[in-house]
Amino acid sequence: MFTTSSVCGDRKLIYVFLCVDFDRDAAFPKIGYKHAISKPKQSETQDILADPERSAEVQGTIDGFEQSLSFLIDRKLPTVFYFEARTIDIVAKQYPDFFKKLNQTFFEIGLHSYDHEDLLGEETGVPLENEEEYNLIKKAKDKVQQLFSTEVHGFRAPYMRLSANTQSILTDLDFTYDSSIYEESNKAIMPHPINQTLIEFPVIKTPKESLMGGMYTYLWPLFEGKRGIKEIIRNYNQLIQNTVEENTYISINLHSWHFAYNVEHNVYLSEKEIRKNTEFLIKLISKIEENEEVQFSTPKMWLEENSSFGKK
Questions:
Q1: Is residue 239 part of a domain?
Q2: Is 310 domain-assigned?
Q3: pLDDT of residue 215
Q4: Which pLDDT score is estimated for 214?
Q5: Does the residue 8 lie in any domain?
Q6: Which of 80, 251, 256, 299 could form a disulfide with 22 if both were Cys (CB 3.0 to 4.6 A apart)?
Q7: 11 φψ region: left (φ > 0), alpha (ψ -120 to 50), beta (else)
């Protein structure tokens, strides 16, 4: 039986996780390829598309995320980064100063596979066998741990798609938690046990019939102009107001490149547009912090602060 310990007495405490999927610019599954292609490169020649490194573009992350990264560092804001191993390896080699900024004690280091693989082969037509999936996740974990000189505890599957084998693989590779499943809710939620050692931290999707109107807690609709910042802030505040349980959590989810790249129009954005998207994130975080019952955290920190969770 799973329980939690209260860390705030009679005061309600809601955790907020800022989660960054740190991957190539608009990872695009392409028929016949196990690795994802950066969408801006989808029309390149065969030799480039077939090369996992040459088909990975990180311009959006470098140009678009730098301002937000500086904000997170200045505020020392706990943030979990789910790193695609190929992308962070490219960043470490080509942009060492940017990479160094990611190595902060208040940042949690998670994993987002190696080449943003479609584990199910749902769109690529190339599903991964159990041993192949095990080897690639192990290879990715080893690479990220080596780059940051720290242990990786959490995993987020590319495209939020787990295969039938992924959770057992994560268990075998000593991951502590996964965060690859959507859960419909109109309030903050609790993590769920998968087995004795692995825990799921679902990502909230609000019910369509709720005041929040079927909002995913990914910010891509905000950055692409499909939802306004006032609506997003109102919806997060509504999730908080609806919550009465202690020690529950809400996550804010985004991609590192999305400040600078519009998927629908397949274009990189101007400096002015990047600054606008950055200001959206800063405003959202600042407004959420006005709630006294909110504490920014990460899944690993949550588990440390709720140490009896998962104990019999």
A1: yes
A2: no
A3: 87
A4: 82
A5: no
A6: 256
A7: beta
